[in-house]
Amino acid sequence: MRRHVTDQDHESAEPILDQTIHDQVPNTAAGTSIGMTMAGLGMPVEHAGRVRTVVEELVFEARQREPFAGSPQKSHSIRICMDVLGQNVRIRVIDYRMPIDRTQGARLSSRRLASLGFIDSLRTSSRGREGNVAECLVALVDPHGTALDGVQVLDEGAQAVSDEEASKIIIREMEPADAVGLVRCAYRCYGYSYPDDLLYQPTTIRRLLKTGLMRSVVAVAPDGDFVGHAALTFGHPDDRVPEAGRLVVDPRYRGHHLAERLGLARNEAATALKLPGLWAECVTDHVASQRNFAMLGGVETGLLIGADAPDVVMSGFNQKNHGRRTLLAFYLPITVGPSVEIHVPERFDPIFEKIGGRLGLSRSLQHTTADPTG
Description:
Blueprint: E1 17-22, H1 27-40, H2 45-63, E2 77-85, E3 88-95, H3 102-105, H4 109-115, E4 121-126, E5 132-139, H5 163-167, E6 170-173, H6 179-190, H7 202-211, E7 214-220, E8 226-233, E9 243-249, H8 258-272, E10 277-283, H9 287-295, E11 299-308, E12 325-333, E13 340-343, H10 349-359, E14 363-366
Parallel strand pairs: 13-14
Antiparallel strand pairs: 1-2, 2-3, 3-5, 4-5, 6-7, 7-8, 8-9, 10-12, 11-12
C-alpha cells in the first residue's frame, strides 16, 4: 500500500539520533555518528559504511548551495535525524539553503550512490522556510541466529492432528517475547518460501510489536509451539487502516477452521483499537485466503493485475508457478464512519454505489463539469 508522505510524517516517529551540525563541523562527523548508529542496530559494518557515505555526500551537496535569505541563522546549519519505521531506518538530512536545481539533481553523486544500492531509496523535497529534506530509507537486516535450531520443515503430507488436539489450541495476543516462536512457526510451515522476510526476523518483529506498528494474534498448541498467526500491520504510526495479513497456519492444523478463528481474533483486536477498517490483498490463485477474508466480512474492491513479482512462488498448490501474480483487493469495515463526499467521474457512479452499499459506507457522489487543471 502506497501513501503520500505529509509534513506531519516528518515528526511523528521518535528519533533515535537527532543532531545539528554547523558549517565548522566536517562532513565526516555526521557520517561517523550515522555509521556507528546503524552498526548498533545490527547492520553489517560494510553496509553501515555505505549508508555513512551517502549521508556525508548529502551534507556536502547541501553546503554547496547558496544560503536561503529568509533564514540567515539556520542556513549555516544542517539537521540530521534518524528514526526506525517498521523494517526500515529513515535518515533525513535537512538544510535551510536554496532548493536543489532539478535539472542538476539527477547528476549529483548522492543519486548515483543510491542507484548503485548504497541505500534502498532517496527522495528530496523543498519546504521553503522549513528547509529542504533529503530522505533515505534503508532496510534493516535481522539475522535469526539460533532461532531455528532443531526446527524441521513440514510438507503438505504432514500428519493432521485430531479434532480433540485442535480443540486445545489457545488463541491470544502476541507479545514481543514471542518473536522467536513466530519465526520458528513460519519456518516450520514454509521453510524459506514465505514471501515476507519479516517473519524470519525476530528483532524486527519485537520492534514492530513494541511500537504498535504490528498487532498480532497467535495460536498456541499445548506443547507451547505456535501453530498459527495473523497480524494487523500499520505502514506508518499515523495510519488508521492497517493491512490484515501475515496469516500462517501449521499444515497439521489445517481443516480445523484455525484461519477463521485467527481472523475473528484479529477483528476483535481491530475493534478494540476503534479502527475504521482493514484492507487485504489476496493472491487470486489462493481461493482459501479469499474465502476466509470474505467470511469475516471483507468485500472485494478491486483487482490488481500482475501486481506480484514473477519470482514469488506459491507452494502447496497444483497450478503452475509462472508469470506475475494478480491480487484481489479487499476492504473490511470495522466501525461505521460519517457520511462523506467523494468526487468521481459520473460514469463510475454504479461501481462506487455498489461497493459502498456492500461495505455499508455512506458516500455522497459529486461530479464536476470543470475542465481539468494543470
